[in-house]
Amino acid sequence: MNIIGNIIKGVIDITEKLTPESSPLENQKEVLKNLLEKAKGTAFGKFYNFEEILKSDAIQKRFSEAIPYFDYNKINEVWWHKLHEGHTNITWPDNPDYYALSSGTTGKTSKRIPVTQDMIESIKSAGIAQIIALSHFDLPPSFFDKGILMLGSSTDLIEKEDHLEGEISGISAHNIPSWFRGYYKPGEKIAKIDDWDERVKKIAKKAKEWDIGAISGIPSWIELMLNEVIAYNKIKNIHEIWPNLEVYTSGGVAFGPYEKSFNALLERPITIIDTYLASEGFIAFQARPETDAMQLVTDGGIYFEFVPFHPDYINQDGSLASHAPALTLDDVELNKDYVLIISTVSGTWRYIIGDTIEFTDIERAEIKITGRTKFFLNTVGSQLSVNKLDDAVKHLEERFNIKIKEYTICAKRYDGEFYHSWYLATEDDVESEKLAESMDDFLKEANKNYRVARTKALKGVKVKTIPASVFHDWNAANKKKGGQVKMERVMNEDKFSEWEAFVEKN
C-alpha cells in the first residue's frame, strides 16, 4: 500500500468535501467590490471615481459605464508607462513586484504586464483549488506522491530596478510554495537555464532519476521535450521511463490538435486536464472529468466581463468598438462566442486579453477558449474562429490517419483571388490536393458563413505539408522558443509573406 499517497489523496478528498459550494455570480460581485475598494486611492481609481461607483446600487453596471475598454497598448500608453518612469500607486496600490514579459503570438516587441504580490497569491490560490479538484478524477493514490514536471520558461528572472521580469510560467515557478518544492521537477537549477534546448537536454539526462506522475506545459513544447527524453534514453515511449505518469496539464492553446501526436508518445492513455494561465492571471481550469471545459476562477483576483463576438463590435485590429456591450455572468448565453474582458489585482482594468470564449455551463461558469480576436479569419466573410480551424485539422487526422502537429493559415490572394492557404506540419505522406478538398468539404458543412463565402469571394483552399521542425525553427528565429510561446494560427498577408520566405529558405 502507498501510505503517503493514500494520506495525501485522503486529505484532498476531505478538503473538497468540506469546501462549501459557492455561487460564481455572487463571487464576481464580491471580487469587483474588493477590487474597487483596494484601488480607489490609486491614480486610476481617483480618475474614474471608484468611490462613487462603490456607492451605486448597481456597481457592475456603473463600473462598465464609467470605464472604457483597454487593450495593452492603450493602458500602457496612458497609465502603465508611469510605473516605468518611477511613479507609484498608478493602477494598483504601490508598485508591482514583477513584470510578465509576453510577446504573445502577434506582437514584435515584448509586452510588460504588471504582476503584483496580490496576483501571485491569486495564482497560488487557484493552483490549490485545481489540486483539490483532482479529487473528482479517478487517479490512483500512488499518483499523489509522484513528481510533477513543469516545463515553462526560465525561472532565472531579470533583475531590473525594484522588480523582476520574466514570462509568467517562470514567475509562477519562481514563487512555488515551499511545501511543493519536493514534488517540483526539473528542480531549481535546471529550471533556471535560459536556453530551452540546453534545459531539455538536461531534463533528458536526469529523466531516469525521477518518478514523474504529472507533466505541465504548452503541448508543442511538451511534445518536443518528451521526444528528446525518449530519444536520449533509447526507449519506445515515455511510460518506459515514467511508468507512473498519469496526468498531463495542458495550457496556452487547445489540446485537440495535438492529441493524436501526443498520444503516440504514450504506452497507455493518461488524464488530460486543461488550464488557462495567461500573463494577466490564472483564469480557469478543468475541474471535473465529465467535460473538457474549464471553470472560471470566479472567487480569485479577477473580475470578468464578456462582449458578444460580433463583427459590429470588433475593429480590424482586434480591438473593441467603444459601443460594444459588456455582459456579466448574469447575462451570458450558452454556445455563443464572447470576447473576454478582465479587471484584476494587478491593476488591469476592463482589459481585452485577446481571447474569445464560449460557455458550456453557465451555472458552473465553465468555458472553452474558441480563439483569438486577432486570429478570427474573416477576410472574405468566412467567419472562422480558431476552434473551427482546430476541428478541421482534427478531421484531416481522422480522415487520412495522419498526425498534424502544427498549422497556420492565411486568406491569401493569388492573381487577385482569395484562397485559404494552409501549412500543415506532418511527416505523413498524403497528397496536398486530397487534404485541401477534404478540408474544404468539412468547413462547408461545419460553418454556414464559410459555405456562403465559397460561393463568392473565397475561391478555394490550398494546402502545403512541411516538417514540424520548420514551425519550431520559426519560433526560435523569432526568439520565442519554449515557455508560453504559441504558433500564430492565422496570419495577415504581410506576416504570411515572411513565413513563406522562411519556409522556402529552410
From TrEMBL:
Protein origin, superkingdom: Bacteria
Gene Ontology CC annotations of this record: cytoplasm
One example GO MF annotation: acid-amino acid ligase activity
InterPro entries: GH3 (IPR004993), GH3_C (IPR055378), GH3_M (IPR055377)
Residues of the GH3 C-terminal domain: 388-494
Pfam families referenced in this protein's UniProt entry, alphabetically: GH3, GH3_C, GH3_M
Domain GH3 middle per the UniProt entry, residue ranges: 297-362
Coiled-coil blocks: none
PANTHER family given in the database record: GH3 DOMAIN-CONTAINING PROTEIN
Name this polypeptide is given: GH3 auxin-responsive promoter family protein
